[in-house]
Amino acid sequence: MAEKKGIIAEFKEFISRGNVMDLAVGVVIGGAFTAIVNALIESVINPIITLIAGKADFAELTVGLFPIGVLISAIINFILISLVVFLMVKFVNKLKDKTEKKAEEEPAEEEPAAPTEAELLTEIRDLLAKKK
Q1: Which of 4, 28, 44, 69 could form a disulfide linkage to 58, CB 3.0–4.6 angstroms apart?
Q2: Mean pLDDT value across residues 111-132
Q3: pLDDT confidence of 67, banded at 50, 70, 90?
Q4: Which of the 8 DSSP states describes residue 42?
Q5: What is the DSSP secondary structure assignment for residue 54, as one 8-state letter?
Q6: Distance between first and last Cα of the chain
């Protein structure tokens, strides 16, 4: 009959699984990455849009009774953030490919060939003969 585990033991087992820890690390890194992307959008890309368009804030834009400015701003931010993330991932993949290519080009150290069974038996025979 299977023994019932306490809730603390189950929680301890759940939290110590590798995939839970990987997920936690991914969430933390994702939060930090979001901060970087948002800073890039706010400090670099939005000022460029303001220079070109003259106005980057569409929050007060309305069509009849519908305030669609917030929606337009959200769509523009989504497109910009997606573009920045795409370019950053592309850059990281390019660096990764260069690193892998460099590793492939470097000659691998050859391991010495292992002795054959006959060589080992001959060596054992010689050692036994020396003992006598």
Answers
A1: 69
A2: 84
A3: confident
A4: I
A5: S
A6: 61
Give pTM, 2 decimals: 0.48
- Residue 27, classed as helix, strand or coil, is helix
Q: Which amino acid, 117?
A: E
Q: Which two tokens stand for residue 69?
A: 């400015």
CA distance 109 to 112: 9
pLDDT band at 22 (very low <50, low <70, confident <90, very high): confident
What does the pLDDT look like over 88-99, one tens digit per residue? 889 989 998 988
- By C-alpha distance, which of 71, 72, 93, 90 is closest to 82? 90
Instruction: Report CA-CA distances (Å) from 14 to 18, 20, 23, 28, 45.
Output: 9, 8, 13, 19, 43
